[in-house]
Amino acid sequence: MREIVTAALQMGPIQKAESRKDVVDRMIALLDQAKAAGATLAVFPELAFTTFFPRWYMEDPAEVDTWFETEIPSAETKPLFDRAREHGIGMYVGYAEKTQDGQQFNTSILTAPTGEIIGKYRKVHLPGHSEFDTERDFQHLEKRYFEPGDLGFPVWHSQGGVMGMCICNDRRWPETYRVMGLQGVEMVMLGYNTPAVNSQMSSEGPEDRLFHHRLSVQSGAYQNATWVIAVAKAGDEDGFPLIGGSLIVDPNGKIMAESKTLGDEILVHSCDLDLCTFGKETIFDFARHRRIEHYGLITERTGAEVPPE
Ligand code: CDV
């Protein structure tokens, strides 16, 4: 057995007016619970230090800057990294990254239990739009504030396993998992902020949203024989509800743990990475069964084109 005791650290809502310090204090309290439960890996949500700010249309670059981290850890976020190192817990944390040359990404990092940052991922599949959209019930401006990630979907060796990262909307795309699957990934970590209602179809509410979320995560896990740890920022942020439904899913696609609230909540499961082996060596033995001669369109073409009649 190769077990990683893993904590999915769901966060409840973060209001626009909430300070980074208050948020970091909440995150540290969750980390303390993870330590008490014996975890060596903690997974936090997407954009974990702030409210989901892409719902707000901003034109003033100085205002936009307030939501971004120019260094990680910063003075404000360092206490979280210090506590993780003291506890011997590796972390996945999502945040808004502004680089020295002014590029902006929706980013996550992976730390080792010893504290060093060993991996960085930048969100590839950015949903939403870049200008104010009067047709939507509320805005989703990720394409305004972020560039598409430029680091691909790498994997990292940590805690005896092959670890991968993605962020929120990435979980709906089979390519996300498959690129990591082709590198032997054994655990995919992801954080998300998913509005409880579709801004372009109000009849699509929390039940449908949770259904699509589970469907995406469970199929990604099964089809690549990997653990997936999916962690929400949940609840009502300034009148805009987000789904919960944080999940720990095993390499058979089965849900091993699921959150029950829309608040700060911890899920813990001992994830045996050796459970990936059976799927990887049988039905999803890629080397024996994939037929790449038929997959060219996946990388040659972006949008769907119906052939002429
Ligand atoms: N933060 C996200 O990427 N949210 C998307 C919404 C817009 C559908 C998601 O896939 O959950």
Structure description:
There is one protein chain. The protein is built from nine helices and 14 strands. The protein has 309 residues and is of the alpha/beta class. The chain has one domain (3-300): Nitrilase/N-carbamoyl-D-aminoacid amidohydrolase (4-Layer Sandwich), CATH 3.60.110.10. A six-stranded mixed beta sheet has the order 5-4-3-2-1-14, with helices on one face. A six-stranded mixed beta sheet has the order 6-7-8-9-12-13, with helices on one face. A hairpin with a 5-residue loop joins β12 (247-249) and β13 (255-258). α1 (20-36) packs parallel to α3 and α5 (174-181) runs parallel beside α6. The chain is globular, with a radius of gyration of 19 Å. The mean pLDDT is 98. 3-methyl-2-ureido-butyric acid is lined by residues 46, 127-128, 140, 168-169, 172, 192-194.
Put simply, the count of helices is: 9
The succession of helices and strands, N to C, reads EHEHHEEEHEEHEHEEEEEEHHH
CATH superfamily: Carbon-nitrogen hydrolase
Using the 3D structure, state the CATH architecture.
4-Layer Sandwich
* Tally of individual domains: 1
Estimated helix fraction: 25-40%
Strand content: 25-35%
Largest sheet: 6 strands, mixed
Largest sheet strand order: 5-4-3-2-1-14
CATH topology: Nitrilase/N-carbamoyl-D-aminoacid amidohydrolase
- The SS-based structural class is alpha/beta
Low-confidence stretches: none
Radius of gyration, Cα only, in angstroms?
19 Å
Mean pLDDT: 98
Question: What is the CATH C level class, in words?
Answer: Alpha Beta
Distance between the termini: 55 Å
- How many β-strand runs? 14
**What is the overall shape?**
globular
**Which compounds are bound in this model?**
3-methyl-2-ureido-butyric acid
